[in-house]
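Service request form, structural biology core

Requester: graduate student, group of Dr. S.
Request type: structure prediction, single chain
Budget code: on file
Notes: please return the result as structure tokens.

Sequence provided:
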Amino acid sequence: MSLTLDSSLDDALGTTTAKTLDRAFSMRTVGDLLSHYPRRYADPGELTPIRELPLGETVTIVAEVLSSSFRRMRNRNGAMVDVVIGDGIGRMSLTFFAKNIGQAEWRSNDLAVGRRGVFSGKVGEFNGVTQFAHPEYELFDDEDSARRRADARASVPIPIYPATSTVQTWQIARFVGRVIDALVDVPDPLPESVRVREELLTAREAIELVHRPRTKNDIDPAVRTLRMHEALTLQTALLQQRDAVRALSATPRAASPGGLLERFDAALPYTLTSDQQTVGAQVAADLIGEWPMNRLVQGEVGSGKTLVALRAMLQVAESGGQAALIAPTEVLAGQHLRSITKMLGRELAPLVMPTLLTGQMPAAERRKAALRVASGQAMIVVGTHALLGEKTTFADLGLVVVDEQHRFGVEQREALRAKGSSPHALVLTATPIPRTVAMTVFGDLDTSVIRTMPAGRAGIESFVAPLAEHPGWFNRVWERAAEEIAQGRQVFAVCAAIDTTKKTGEAGEQPALAPEGAGGPRWGVVQLDEALATHPTLGGLRRAVLHGRMPSDEKDTIMQAFARGEIDLLLATTVIEVGVDVPNASTMIVLDADRFGVSQLHQLRGRVGRGGVPGLCLLVTEAEAGSVARERVDAVAATLDGFALAEVDLELRGEGDVLGAAQAGVRSSLKLLRVVKDAGLIVRARELGEEILASDLDLERHAGLRDAILRRVSDEDRAALAKN
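Core staff response, request fulfilled:
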């Protein structure tokens, strides 16, 4: 049977195996199986250090049998096989249960002393000895390993695949081998001239060598070729989507002399920063362009992104269009409305009628707001997911502003954009994104960056309180908070949990990061409130608790009271992470700081130092010096540069987390491509994609690339791309 990458696994491997692979890995085609690449390669001549195996994890190792025996069970039927394997330094035991003596004898003979193989199981411990209980294994001199046996001196690398308890790595290797043997020529995504110029393998060679390398030297060229294929496929798909947006017609939204935007700028009590002026000019030009604006604006915490967005909203309003700003939380939506209304002032606010629309508003108030939106009376609409509801309609939606894009799925953003006719889109993020991530995740958007901060900010000092080395510093943290409050300032204290006794996290939030070997967070806001109630100084001050599981009106009441200075100390979860603006708040205390990501800590720190009051950020952690968890905390304390921290975050966490948080679908499912390590390759792939599309927009003369995109970017993925 001849197979192609599009052949079904039913045809290639049979229905039973195909169903198993579908359940385990969502594989349906030969191409799906062949893009399930080895995660590493083992060398039969180099045994794995058993002493380094992590308890509780499922691992695959290469080892040698040192002893093998069996015995009857005393109090039950059957027998037990005891095997010891080793690497010359350490050793571990394998335990197998057999139904009878005959089965046990066969197993013991199979695992004879001196045989080497691949063993896979969950690492346990019994009587102080590392153990696998009933592991899966494959010995090197099995019939299926004849290729290795034929030239043992060559030390043929053994691919170790991402596996599950139902599908082992050597089973995947067998399936891969079967389909490769039947695979016909594979079309190359790259034109032959480009492939030769870039010194890459053919697609067929790369697939063969990544799965069945003859020597270690075969692996790198194969991986480099497949990484370029992946980068080119994704970048070209993003460029196609960008061009598809530019093929749409948009209603020009021009500002007029003496209009809303000009009047707003004239009333501003300060001058726009140079970056705000530059980005504002880019947005203004986009709004009068032939196609819909599709722009991402990155900016440091407090850099003035909301002001840039408001100026765009006013430009749209001048043409009679409406602007909708969707925020991830009710607290942030309410904050945005108050901020926008304040910036507009008494003269302009009534003309555009900023309106709040959220799901937890009283029914009568919500109906009234929805009517203003539907009639077009409200030119600026701020809301949460309630804006996405079927009952919410707009008279003329001309601009969609998405705040903190990583909090929304593509379907949610599309549901809002679908309420207008090719509306312009402005995506805001206060989480700086490394260039290669932005190129890979948001490659179909035009990107702007606001780095300069508004004048008058007093700045922020950041310090780590390492309780592992200095337990006494915990008391000093609260003394420092009391000193700030005594000067008339306000303090945030943030916890990674609501109630540690009930294991409750923040509603709708991703779980906090767990340092290796750690249990849950030590502090929840409930426990912190109880502890501070008896503090000699802080116990008598005005204190409040805020978290995402509280009713919306209660959250809003507390946040407004804090903003008015009626609360001295606010104990909160990450519900206050973004958008909350209280100029008098001077101090941010983050407990269990090692439970948070780098960007999250940077966001939290940005809640203070927003006015003329100097900011202080105290990162409290019990993480040991030198641990990855501690590195995150130390990195945040070392710099206020969010873009530098984004690079650190990417290096510490890996692009899987970063991309997964940024975008569902194709962009979070990178196979071999690594956005840090392969930065240059991604840039080169982007250039090649632009070259190819410049002369062949529909890829009629580049069938290999066209087919690769169809395989790599599914209908669902393409829909995801189209929704940005």
